[in-house]
Design a protein that fits this description.
With 157 residues, this protein is mainly α. It has one domain. It is globular, with a radius of gyration of 16 Å. It starts with a helix and ends with a helix.
């Protein structure tokens, strides 16, 4: 069995309850988006490629290295998702900066509320989050969601 299959199966064991699954479909993307936003708000020279390169975009690049090692199709999916995360945060940052709002506070609020949702989902499920056993499951959660999309549209991952 491939490593990605083992990881997705193990992750899925603590995500059987339909309420927990629904919460994950909402909260994992919010956590991903807000994490990039939190890292985006760390001071970084803004003149590098017009502000597109920052700690948030570097995180996406590092995650891509992880995903390409697990599965080329998942990597390609995350290339698209990562692009949306970067573009979305770029425009959110521009908007918030123009209106004198804090990117950090906005991202932190989303991040905090989404994690409350995740832990509530696991309370409903009655099982601990997988990442408490192995930190790499923080990156497997998004892959778990993407593999369902791939299955639905007939793409082998």
């Amino acid at each position: 069995m491939r490593t990605i299959d083992k990881l997705l199966t193990e992750y899925g064991e603590s995500h059987q309850n339909s309420t927990n699954k629904t919460i994950h479909w909402i909260c994992i993307p919010l956590i991903m988006f807000s994490l990039v936003g939190l890292l985006w708000s760390i001071p970084f020279p803004r003149d590098i490629m017009g502000g597109w390169v920052n700690i948030g975009s570097v995180l996406i690049l590092l995650a891509m290295v992880y995903y390409v090692r697990l599965s080329i199709p998942l990597f390609l999916g995350f290339l698209l998702i990562g692009s949306f995360l970067i573009i979305g945060n770029f425009y959110l940052f521009s908007y918030l900066e123009q209106n004198n709002w804090s990117m950090f506070l906005c991202s932190f609020l989303i991040f905090f509320l989404a994690w409350i949702g995740q832990f509530y989902g696991h309370k409903v499920e009655g099982k601990k989050p997988s990442f408490l056993k192995d930190i790499q499951f923080l990156l497997i959660g998004p892959a778990w969601l993407l593999h369902f999309i791939y299955k639905k549209i007939g793409i082998n991952y």
